[in-house]
Each structure stands twice: as structure tokens, then as C-alpha cells.
Amino acid sequence: MRVLFILFCLFGLNLHAQQKYYFVAFKNKPNYKSQLSQPLSYISKKAVERRLKNRVPLNVNDIPPDSAYLEQIRKFPLMMYGNSRWLNGVVILTGYINIIDTLEDLDFVSKVVYLGPQSPFIEEDQASNTALDEQISILEQTFETKPLVNDTLFLGKSFKQINQLNARQLLLNNKNGKGVLIAVIDAGFKNADQLKALKPLFNEGRIFATYDFVEKEEEVFDDDEHGLAVLSCMAAFEPGSIMGTAHKANYILLRSENAASEYLLEEYLWTLAAEYADSAGVDIINSSLGYTKHDDKKMGHKYSDLDGETTIITQAAEIACSKGILVFVSAGNEGNETWKQLSTPGDAEHVLTVGAIDDLGVMANFSSTGPTADRRIKPDLVALGKSTSVLSASGKVYFGNGTSYACPVLAGTAAILMELAPNKSPQQIKDVMVLSGSNFYKPDKYLGSGIPDIELCSRILCTRDDSLLDARVLDDNNLYVLIHCKTDQKITLLLSEPKEGELTKSTFSVKKGPNRLLVKGYKKRPGGMYHLSVQFPTKLSFIDLIKP
What we know:
The chain is of the alpha/beta class. It has helices at about 1-10, 30-35, 45-55, 65-75, 100-105, 125, 130-140, 160-165, 170, 200-205, 225-235, 265-280, 310-320, 405-420, 425-435, 455-460, and strands at about 20-25, 80-85, 90-95, 110-115, 180-185, 205-210, 235-240, 240-245, 250-255, 285, 325-330, 350-355, 380-385, 390, 395-400, 465-475, 480-485, 490-495, 500-510, 515-520, 530-535, 540-545.
């Protein structure tokens, strides 16, 4: 008792020290094997079903940290801020400096990582101020005397961002992500519960859960409005004004970012949020957050860290993907800055990293570029991120700039594809989106595989027959053909012209599923018209006219 009394007296000397966050990592999970057979005790039924559908086995990182270890940590003068299954440890908050050495000496603790000081939250009245660029955008719209170009009765000001992805007809045909569960991890969703364009979400009970990991509460509607703008790109439904790409999907809204500061803590809170989303059984995670610099320079990342495995948030994003979740992350807005490259977790190999373009398909100058430090092409795809229609906390529609908005516009279309092809895996959805990209044949560090064609994606995912799906002639004078095959087989491509007759004839060995084929030496003839035939073993498919 005397030793314990002295110990707490020493802690008492630090009573007025600043509260700081740490991550206490444990060495193992001694009893995890016995828990693997009881998944419903730590993840939801929907999460189990998603694992079964995608053939994802349960493993050690599905199991919570050992309860005996947590109980010993709880005896110290600290606040338990959140347990991590994936990282096997606990985030703590304490003002007692001496406690850290004591924790590190525990035989089951592998390390203690400093995450940053307790920072003030943005006050509500500050958070409610609309950013200057939003104010200017809204003001400009009040002086419009003509209808917006390409405005429609249904898609409204969202027409360009939807039409650019060739998703317009799908939305008009009532394909809108119904039944898909999306987690949005962001900095707050100010007033989302009060705005007309988002009312259907609440009236129809499609907000499944909310949680604020920064302030440890369920309220997420009184903080920063960045997440609101992001959410509106997917979930808004106000015909003639603003339309999200997945306005019938279900949502979980999670806050992991404190907009008032930038410390390593937020990468760990993001991990807790992603674990929450996994446990709840989400199909898609959208995260328009990224990290490069931190307020504490020692915590900042170097370009060499963007190798797909070094940063904590990238490790967490990769684990999320391994659980059968399709993870979308924004590439970052550092294109105009000294950094220029991606922000993490945009370097994660299996996430779908999204860059920003304008309405002409030109890369936005602020959009971060790849490649990753280990020379992989990133971003994967791009969508409209310059003058994207989003909601403000006052309910006004404004044109915002950022990969933060390109990311959810695209993530919502993935929900459409999941609705159309519920038996396809997240990896198959991602692969098809990349396959349909406008830049697929020449991906680069600026646009990745370019702008996906969501209508084409739907055809690829839904076809079961031998089919000719797409044919394009690019500037290199080559013909690129996309076909779907029921089995591994040999096919023949014949290109002919009304006057010249047969021009080229090529035979290919193709695999089951979608195949991209190249026919070299295509010659453009002014005013010419072409006939492309694909001879499968059992049928003939053709496109009547190909205009050069």
C-alpha cells in the first residue's frame, strides 16, 4: 500500500500538466483463437455477412485487445479514449508525465507512442462561418440571369459532375445506391440534420449511426461543415437543385478530424472510425481527409513514407480493404504547394485514390499528383473537383473546389454499381471502374486511369454473355476494344470499310471476364465509316459504325 501511495503522489506532482494523447500498443492477444468462433460478440451480423460474401476469413486483427490488459491500463490515472482491434492497443489521454515510463515497463506493452496534446475544438459559432470561397460562389449565383448550362429538371446543378462520369441515365432510371451502406469519415456534418436536401436521409431512417471520435459523443451535426459538403455529393436529393450520386444509400457518419489542429492523433482516430465502420458492416468508406504536415513537425510525413505501408492511417486503410470494404480517399490538394504529392492514405495500394479535374476533363491545378514513393501510379481515377456542386451549412448550393468533393462524387457511383451487381466483390467493382477509365491505356501520375464510364461499368458487371462492350480510336491511331467472354477462348476481330472492304483481321486468345484488346495500325479516313465485327465461337457481335 505504501508503494502504491508513493506512486500516486508522484503522479500528483504532474496534476496540472497539459493533457496529452498516447497510443499504448500491446505485444499480443493471448486468447484470440478462442474468440474467433464467436464473431457476433465483437462485429455485427452484417459485417459477418460481408466477410462471407467476399470470402474474407476472420483473423487476429478482428479480435479486440485483451480485456485483462485493458483492465490493468484502466487502473492508472488516465482516460481510455478508444481501443483498436487492428493496431492492438488503446488511445489514452493523461496529464501525468511519469505514467508513460511506467506503462512502457509493463510486460504486455510493446511501445507507447505520443500522439499530440489535447487541442481545443472549433467553437460552434466559428464552425458555422461559411468559408470565403463558398460565400463568393453563392453570391455569384444570386446574379445569374440565365439557367445554368446543362441544368436539368432532375439533376440540377449536379448535372456536370454526374454526366461527366456517364452516370446520368442510371440515376434517371432510379439506380441510386439503394441498400448500400456507406461510412463517411470526416471533420463534422454541421446542420446536416436540418437541411431540406438531406431530409430524406432522416425521414426514411437511412442514417444508421453517428459517432464523434474527437469528442466521444454521438452528436456530429454541430461541428465543422466539411463533412456536410462531402456527404451532399452522395446523399443530397433536391430535384432541380442538387443531386447526390447515391441518394438512396444508407449512411454512417463518423467524425475523426479536429479541424482546429493537426496531430498524429487524428490518424489513430481515423483508424478507430474505420474499425467502427467495419464492425457495422459498411460496404464503402469515403474519406476526404489526408495528412502530410502536422502541427508538431516531428510527426509530419516525408515523401518516402508514402510507400503504401509506413503511415498508420495507410496501414488502417489497407486493413479496411482487406475486410471486403471498398475504400475511397481523396488524393489531396497540394498540387499548387511545395509538397505537390499525394497525402496519406492516398498511397495505400488497395484504396481507390481520387484526383480532381474541371468540367473539361483537365486536371485541377490544386490536385495532388503521384506516383507513390515506391513508384506506383496514383491517383487511380479522377472526377469533377473544380466547381463541384455541394451544400453549405445554410442549405445553399455552391460550387466548391477540392479532391474532397471529387472523391464522394465517385464513391456514390460505386454504390450504384453495387446495387446493380450485388454479388460482385469490392475489388471487382474497383477493377471495372479503373478498366473503364478514359486514360486506361496510358495511365499517368496526374489522372491515373482517368475518368471512369459508369454506364460502361454497369454493362461490364451485368453482362453474362460473350459481348462486344466498347470500341475506341485514340490519338495513337490504334483501335481499342473491350469485350466480355463467358470462358477462356479464341476470338477474331474484323475491321472493314464500305468501299475498301476488309482492313484488318486479328485473332486473340482471351480470358473469362472483361478483356481490353489493341488493334494496331488503325487508319483514320476523313468521312470514312467502319464496321467492327467480333467472331466468338458461338456468335457474332458487331458495332455498325465507327467514326474516325
